[in-house]
Every structure is written in C-alpha cells, then in structure tokens.
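WARN retry 2 of 3 for item q-0093 after timeout on previous attempt; input resubmitted unchanged.
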Amino acid sequence: MTNEEQRTGVFIAQYLKDAIQTRKAKVCVIGIGYVGLPLAVEKAKVGFKVLGIDQNISRVSMLNLGQNYIQDVQDEELCSLVKGGELTATKDFSGLPEQDIIIICVPTPLNAHREPDISYVDNVTKEISKRLRTGQMIILESTTYPGTTQEIMLPLLESSGLKVGVDFFLAYSPERVDPGNKRYTTKNTTKVVGGVTQLCLEVAQCFYAQTITNVVSVSSPAVAEMTKVFENTYRAVNIALVNELMMLCHKMNISVWEVVDAAATKPFGMQTFYPGPGVGGHCIPIDPFYLSWKARQFDYSSRFIELAGEVNIQVNYYVVNKVVKALNMTGKLVKGSRVFLLGVAYKKDINDYRESPALKIIKLLKAEGAELVFFDPYIKSMQDWDGSKIEADWVELSEEELTKSDCVLIITDHSNIDYEKMVDQASIIVDTRNATKNVKSGRSKIILI
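OK item q-0093 returned
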C-alpha cells in the first residue's frame, strides 16, 4: 500500500467513524432471521436508520407491517421502530449504494455430503460487489470456515476495482445468538471482531461499540472465524462425551443423571453438560463439520470432531431403541403403535426446530411403522430442509390424546408443561431430558435415557 493510499484510507475511515458515532451512517442487514433481525433492532434502537434485505418475502412483508416473527425480539419495540421509519425491509438489492454499513447474516448450511454450503454468502457478496462504492464497511456475521472472508469475499469485492483498507473496509464478526436466553442478549454478549486491515478493524470496532458493551479485537478475520467454530465444536464435543457416558451408564445400570449432578458439585475444573436425544439448532450440529472439512484441505484428520458428530447422531438411534423397548414392556410392537412426541424444538422454551433431534427421530420411528403425533406449545407444524412436511400431526396436550397414545416420548423439556399431570395420564414415558425429575408418583412408568 502506497503512502497516498494509506492517507486516503485513514481519511475515509475517519469519515465513516464520524458518521457512525453521530448515527448518520445508514445500516443494512442482509438476512433478517434469528441473527439478523435482533441485530437490526438493536442498531435501530440507538438511532441508526436500518434497512433489512431478505429473499423471504413473508419476512419482508411482516417486518414492514411491524409484525414480529422472532421470539427474542420485543413486539412493541419492533412495531415502534417500523412506525417511526427507523427500520424497513425489502428483497431488492438496488438500495445498497446508499448504505454505509452492510452486515451479512445469511444461512451457511451443510450440503448432502456434510460440506459447507456458502452459496448464500457468495451470491450476496456478488450483489454487493456490483454496487460497491467508496466508503462502505462490509461485515460477515454468518458462521463459516476459517478463510471465507479473505479467500472468498475479498477477491469478489475487489473485482469492483476498489481496494480493501483504502476504498472500502471488510471484517468478520461471528454472531453469538442464543435463542431464548434472557440473560445474554445481542447487547451484553461480548463481540469478537477481526478486520482484513487495521483500518477495517477500527471501523468495525467503532460500529459495534455503539450498541454492544464489550468488543474484543483479534488479529484477522480467520482468527475470528476459527473462534466461532471452536466455540460450537467445544459444545458438540462435550455433549458427545456426556451422551457416550449416558449409553455406557445404561449398560452398567447407573443413572447418568445422578452422575452428572454429583460431578457438577465440583467447584473447579468442571463445566456441566447434560445428555439428551441428540444435538440441534443452527450451530452445534453444523459448525464442527466446517472445521473438519477445512482440516482435510491441510491433509489433517480431525478425528476428535468427527467422532463427536458420530456419537451425537448415534444417540438418535439409541432414543428410538428406548421407545421400542418401552413398547415391548407393555406388550406392544412399535409398528402400528401411537407415539406421542412431547416437544420438538431443539431446546426448551423456544419456537426453533432447526436441526432438532426430533426431525431425525421422527423419520426413524416412521420407518419402524409407528403412528406419530406431537405437541409443542411453540410449534404447530414443521417442514424438512427441502420444504416437505414432517410426518407428524400436532395435537392438544390433553388427557384424551395422552391416554390413547401407547408411549409418550419427551424430546424437549419445555418449562410450561405440567409433567406431574402428564405422567398420571400417560401409559409409559420415555424421557430424554429428565424433565420428569420432580414427579413423585408414577415413577414406574418413566424410562430415562
């Protein structure tokens, strides 16, 4: 970089930081789902004019009507921001040149071969590149493998003829959204940021500091990208460990729940993870495979990560086997039996079923010939990743539905369920979450995984 380019970059960066600090900078969030909408709301609340872009026309229409569709966003706040003109949405990219800060929050799923699918990031970056102008800041928040920002996005953006750190700025800052978490929100969850250049980092830090209490800088986007996949791989590996312990404890006739609770009393060197029917959500079942895929490019086998994935998939089959054995205890075959699934969200007290273990368990039970119904207070219908309807009908959590079911399978331990009453009315229960731990009567009907 020449001295002239450096001076130009410093001047443009300072101009953009001034616009950020005075709230004159216009903000665009591409992808207004579970990550993007809470972020857009936080920015609009402090005075930024925010434009949301999404190809889901239903989301766009609802947002423009002030109708909320994300559980972690307050209805009143969203409605007020829309009415005041601080927050609008569109599916059109034509307004990008008017934006100063562009944040990408699009999906990064796995393909059928468990390889990263960054087509959404790629396509959005191409749309930005067509309209990129001097003085803009581009930030990727979507979870991805280390190298995406600099190896995929940067060349596409510089194909516009503009230069990073001089004409425009580029950074990666991983989302840290935990749906349903009332304690840690977008505002008080520490933000990690890595910029392609020092000026890129400074602008990104300045932007996030307007709404987030603590912003931590790292030396590069790749470090920030690795930080995100490490965080979720850590959880996946520890969940796999306790799930494997659960299956061993079953063979040894030991209560894994008692073991985990006892181990949790140690005040140092121990973080508690509980077993369950598998892993779900938009991060933990997916992100570790980004890392193992990237490792193969360096002729390195990440066996620990792959093994954790295998264990967390195996536990789905373990749960189905528990249902089969529970039905056998009552003299019934799984084929033709009515199995009542209680809770299908990937964790309690939320309406999100992305990658929920319930989806795999439903398919496995259907393959065994079971008739399935489900109740979830937050979810009344489900679709698979390809848009097809999940083969289980929503029913009321009623005495009639419970008594005519041959087995109740608790997949998600929602807090607003009367488990005492449910146990009383059901014939046999397979509990994958220890949701019935405080139930005193009818314990002989409860089978814990």
